[in-house]
Model the fold of this input.
Amino acid sequence: MTMAVAMLAAGAGAPVLAAGNVQAGKTKSAACIACHGKRGISSNPDFPNIAGQSEHYLIKSLREFRSGERKDPSTSMNRIAAALSDADIADLSAYYASLRR
Ligand code: HEC
Done:
């Protein structure tokens, strides 16, 4: 998990304000599969489904986890989001929003 997040952070080269790239988000989602499932539908009820969620909400949630404004009681999301760049958040949000629920 730690390694996946490190790889995720290292892969962030896109300009900060670029619109999310679905394909890049799919690659970066490797770090999310363990909890949120292979295509954003979790098999574990402790983890929310994020496939098909609105892109705006996904971006907002990830930024709030990163800033600490939103706290995950398990702290997982705060830890994970801390390693995400704005481009990572945009790409991941575009990808999960593109999936069917
Ligand atoms: C170790 C398990 C774990 C991993 C890995 C993980 N998450 Fe989460 N995620 C959670 C949990 C638990 C919550 C629910 C937090 C809460 O109750 O606020 C959550 C919540 C979220 C939410 C908010 C969903 C909602 O309905 O409000 C988003 C968006 C999200 N995760 C995206 C991601 C992305 C993108 C990744 C990969 C970069 C990722 N998560 C990796 C456990 C994980």
